Amino acid sequence: MEPLKNKRVLFIYGHGGMENLTLNISKELKNRWNTESYFLGGSKGGDQFLIKNGISKENIYINEYSDSIKNFPQPDVEFIKKAEKKYDFKSWDVWQISAPRKRSRQKFSSEKVLYWMEYYIKETEKCITKFKPDYVIFYGIASFSGVILYQMLLKHNIKVLEIINSRIPSRFTINDDLENNWPLLVKEYNLLKKRDLTKGEIEKAENFIAEFLEKKFKPDGVGYKYSIKQKLLKYISYAKTLSYRREMPDLRQFIWPLANKILDVSGTFEMPVKGEKYAYYPLHVNPEVSTSFYGRWYVNQLALIENIARNLPCDYKLYVKEHPYHYSSRPFNFRQEIKKFPNVRLISPHANVVDIIKDCDLVFTITGTTGWEAIMLQKPIITFGDVYYNLFEEVVKLKNLRELSSIIDKKIGTTNDKTKTLKFINAVLNSTFKGVGVIPCICGNSLETQNVSLIVDGIEEYIGKNI
To answer: What pTM does this model have?
Structure first.
């Protein structure tokens, strides 16, 4: 694997246990290919953790900014404008990835936001100049800084290896652009479209669908039930992280489950009605980069639900299913606004998703896993954001809201072509690798030695196929 031998690799660390995970991956790459590892991050105490575990201080670049900062210089607006043009982003756009995560940020002055932008751009440019990485490895975008970093790397022709949760259990893939297109998936699917599937490929896809229907599996980190031992180890790891960061625990993780249970018995939600004709829209978690960036033109889900409801045929209901996790974190009136439409049912977060998809006549989603699940069940799908399965020609991505009504009329009640479906499933399976590709705070299995080895195996395979 000459492309990796003696190369300089920059790892992006941050919250969620990423210091530990990137450290372990860097050690595995060092053992195999004698790579030189560098680290860029801003999480409190992360640099000290890395130093204590053998990383030279000279190989760590800290990009640390604080919400609480009050005294800062006036931002250099002309510099920021030039950077926006050079790196192809808009400050006010990417800021909306970070702003909703804390209420206090929504009160920031424009000067404070622009100061942050200027600071991050300049510091990241210094980091890239200092380390001169051949590859950059990180686990997805979580803030405005992630988008700016991504654009900088692309501009400097530095190879990006973004580890992506493939939404298939214990499999991940790698992305290298901000369009949410998986490069290997594009390559694999374009090849499969040109030929017939073999008997073995047909069986592989059909067996995968059958397994999904039987096990109703979810992406890594979703609905995972930890053993008592695993829970204990998870909390010990969390306590250690809080210790070196000198932070207080996030109490929301303990409050939300209780608040969820109260909502469950409040009479807020309904269950599906047998025999009723309906289209289906699952609510996304907010704030999440899946909506605030990849689906940013439709991030207002209340407005989106209204537009869908107004354009359905008169004999159809719209089933809006609440997300199964942390749904009590939404504003109180959010659900009441949904329920004001007479043709909309707010479905319980505990309703069976697979059964809902099987019985619906049309699926709407911004970028959700539901779209992938609907593909397996040959259901028509309309998407509103940038998501990998838009590559599948049976999926319609809405480009103009004025066209929504006619697209609904065209797609509702139809069935996706089976041969095309089996080809796309094969392409997805062929473009993913064994391993858990999510951050440790979502799935503790990420840190296991075997998983780290699998992640590096996947990186090697990806580079061999795509670079």
So the answer is: 0.91
